UniProtKB/TrEMBL annotation, chains A, B:
One of its GO terms (molecular function) is DNA binding. This is LacI family DNA-binding transcriptional regulator. Pfam families: LacI (PF00356), Peripla_BP_3 (PF13377). Residues 10-53 form the HTH cro/C1-type domain. Residues 9-63 form the HTH lacI-type domain. It comes from the Bacteria. It comes from Kribbella alba. InterPro entries: Cro/C1-type_HTH, HTH_LacI, LacI/GalR-like_sensor, Lambda_DNA-bd_dom_sf, Peripla_BP_I. CDD domains: HTH_LacI, PBP1_LacI_sugar_binding-like. Keywords: DNA-binding, Transcription, Transcription regulation. SMART domains: HTH_LACI.
Length: 337, 337
DNA sequence: TTGTACGCGTTATCAA
DNA sequence: TTGATAACGCGTACAA
C-alpha cells in the first residue's frame, strides 16, 4: 500500500503530494496552530496516503531530543528481570510511557565493572532522561549516575549518595513496623526476622522497622540475613530457628524468602500460623501460591513505576524535582498470621 | 572533566584538537584499517581527552541503521511483564545484546486495538529489527508484523501466520507428552489436564501432547481450560475435579495454574502425590515454593531469549533465516509426582 | 499563513 | 593515507 519505493516517505514527498512546502508539512506534523484548516486537511491526506512517519534520527539531530528514556539496571546480574519488583516497575513505567511519544530503552550493565560504558552512553545524549532501578547501594556507579548532566530518577533512595536526587520509594520502615506490630497484636511475644542485605534500602529499612518495634516492646532481637532469593531465605530460616527455637512470630523481608521459610517450618514440624505466625513483604504472586497463603505487606509497585515515569517526563520537561517521594504500604492479611 | 561547554563534543572538535580532518576522525572511530598508527594515536588521545561519544542520531541519519532492536509485546495487557516466561526471554535477549552496540527498545501496544501505532513505528525505520513476543495468536497484528519490511523473529510460532517466518520455541507437544507419559509410568490411569487458551501455541500444543498420549493409552480425555493465571487455574481445577472425581493424575499447562490446582486439591482433601499426582510446565520459581514442590517440564527460557537475539542480529546482518527453531524440554522431578 | 534557506553531526564519495 | 564536500531528513528563524 505504501513505502513501495524502498525507503520510507519523507517530508519532501508529502509536501510534493500535498502541493505545499516541506516547512508547512512540518508544521502540520508538529501541530502548529498557524496553518489554514484546508492546508492541514490536504497535508493530512497526503500523510495518510503515503503512510508517512517522521524520521526520528533526523528530528533528534535538530531538536536535540531523542524522545526516549532509559530504564537502567546498573548491575550485570540480570536476575533482576525475574524479580517481581522489577516486573511491576517495568509495567508501571511502560504503561505510563506507552501513550506518550517517548520510547523506553532498556540498559543493563554489560559486564562486572563496566560502568563506564553505561555512563558514556547516558552522557552521549542518546536518551532524554533515565530511570535507575538501583538495588545494591554501595556501588559507586550510583554516585556517578547521580551527578550526570541528565534528568535522573531513582527507584529507591540510593544508598551512599549525598546530593539531593529524585527518587520514588515505599516507606519500608513503616511497612516493617506494621508487620511486626500486627504480630505483636496477635499475641506473639518472641518475634524474629529474616532480613535482606544491608546494602539495599529494602534490606536496611525493613530491618530498622523491625528493630524499632522490638526495642519499643522490650523484645530481644532475633535476626538472620538472606539475600532475597529462595535459597538464601531457606538457609536463613534454618539458622534462625536453630539459634532461636522458641520463636513464635516471624517477619520476613520478602515474599520469596517467606515461602522458603514456610517450607522450613513445615519440615521442622511447626504449624503456621498456630505455632509460628509469618508475615512477608511485597504481596507478589507467590504470596497466594503457598499453604497457608501468606499474610504480607503490600507495596504499590506498579504505581511506583508509573510515578517514576511521570517524574522523568516532568524533569525532561524542565521541572525541578530533586527529592524523594514516599508511598505507603498496606498489610494484607491472609492465612499465615 | 569534559563536555563542560554545553553539548557533547563533536567529530569536528576532536578533529581540531587532533590536528586532522573530520573524515579521519570518523575513520578512526569506525576502525578503518587505512589510517597511519600515529594518526590513530593522536585521534584517540583527543577522543579520550574530550570524552567524545558518537552522536547516534547523526550516524543513524546517514547510515540508515539505528543500532537498536525492538522487543515487541503486541498486546495492551502488560501483565506479560509479570510472566516468568517474559522475564526469562528479556533476560536472555538483554544478556546477548549487552556486549553488542545494539540497544534494546521495549515496545508495547499502548491501547486495545491501537496496532497501527506499533506498526507505523516499526515501519518508520526507528529500529533495525524486532523480536515479537507473541502470546495470543488470533490477533491479525501478527499477520501484519510478519509482512513488515524489517527483520523479524517471533518468540513462538505465530498462530495463523502462513508465510515462513523465523521463530524460536520449545517443543511443547513433546514436553506435554513427557509429562503425561511420566504420570502413566507412575501407575496413574485416569489423567486429566488443565489446558491453556487455544489461541496460544503454548496452550494448543501442550493440549495436543496430552491428547496424543491419552489416545495411545486408550485413556478418555478429561480437560478443563484455564487462562494461565492463578485464578483461571483454580476455577479450572474446581471444574475438572467436580466433573471427573476419579482422576489420579493431572497435567497442568503452566506452573502458576498448577500451584492453584495444588491448593484446590488440598481443600478437596486429596493428597499429592498419593491420591493425585501433579505435573506442571515451565519450572518457574513458584515450582519450588509449593508443598510438595512441583514436578514440572522445564523449558530453557533464557536460552530461547539468547537465540532470539542472535537470530535478529544475524538477520540484520543480512542472513536469511525464515524457519522455526525448536528447543527441547526436560522433566524436572520433584515431590508432586 | 506560507515558503526559503541554513544547520544539526555523521558517513561516504571523490580527489589529491 | 588524508581532506573537501555532498548528502541524510528535519525544524526553524527569517522573509515574503
Amino acid at each position: 500500500m505504501q513505502g513501495q519505493d524502498g525507503g520510507s516517505p519523507t517530508l519532501e514527498q508529502v509536501a510534493a503530494l500535498a502541493g505545499v512546502s516541506r516547512a508547512t508539512v512540518s508544521r502540520v506534523v508538529n501541530g502548529s496552530p498557524k496553518v489554514l484548516p484546508d492546508t492541514v486537511a490536504a497535508v493530512e491526506r497526503a500523510i495518510g496516503e503515503l503512510g508517512y512517519v517522521p524520521n526520528r534520527a533526523a528530528r533528534a539531530l535538530v531538536t536535540r531530543r531523542t524522545d526516549s528514556v532509559a530504564l537502567v539496571v546498573p548491575e550485570p546480574d540480570s536476575r533482576v528481570f525475574s524479580d517481581p519488583f522489577f516486573a511491576g516497575i517495568l509495567r508501571g513505567v511502560s504503561m505510563t510511557l506507552a501513550p506518550t511519544s517517548s520510547q523506553l530503552v532498556l540498559l543493563i550493565e554489560p559486564a562486572e565493572g563496566d560502568d563506564q560504558r553505561l555512563l558514556r552512553y547516558l552522557r552521549g545524549g542518546h536518551v532524554d532522561g533515565a530511570i535507575i532501578v538501583s538495588h545494591h547501594g554501595r556501588d559507586n556507579v550510583l554516585q556517578e549516575l547521580a551527578h550526570l548532566p541528565l534528568p535522573i530518577v531513582f527507584s529507591a533512595r540510593p544508598l551512599g549518595v549525598e546530593v539531593p536526587v529524585a527518587s520514588v520509594d515505599v516507606d519500608n520502615v513503616a511497612g516493617a513496623r506494621t508487620a511486626v506490630e500486627y504480630l505483636l497484636s496477635k499475641g506473639r511475644r518472641r518475634i524474629g526476622t529474616i532480613a535482606g542485605p544491608l546494602d539495599m534500602t529494602a534490606g536496611l529499612d525493613r530491618l530498622t522497622g523491625y528493630q524499632e518495634v522490638a526495642a519499643e516492646a522490650g523484645m530481644a532481637e532475633a535476626v538472620a540475613y538472606g539475600d532475597f532469593t529462595a535459597d538464601g531465605g531457606e538457609q536463613a530460616a534454618v539458622k534462625l530457628f536453630a539459634e532461636y527455637p522458641d520463636l513464635d512470630g516471624l517477619f520476613v523481608a520478602s515474599d520469596l524468602m517467606a515461602t522458603a521459610a514456610l517450607r522450613v517450618l513445615s519440615e521442622l514440624g511447626r504449624r503456621v500460623p498456630e505455632d509460628v505466625s509469618v508475615v512477608g513483604f511485597d504481596d507478589s504472586v507467590m504470596a497466594t501460591t503457598t499453604t497457608p497463603k501468606l499474610t504480607t505487606v503490600r507495596q504499590p509497585i506498579e504505581t511506583l513505576g508509573a510515578r517514576l515515569a511521570e517524574i522523568i517526563l516532568a524533569k525532561i520537561g524542565g521541572a525541578d524535582l530533586t527529592s524523594p517521594e514516599i508511598f505507603s504500604t498496606e498489610l494484607i492479611i491472609r492465612g499465615s498470621a
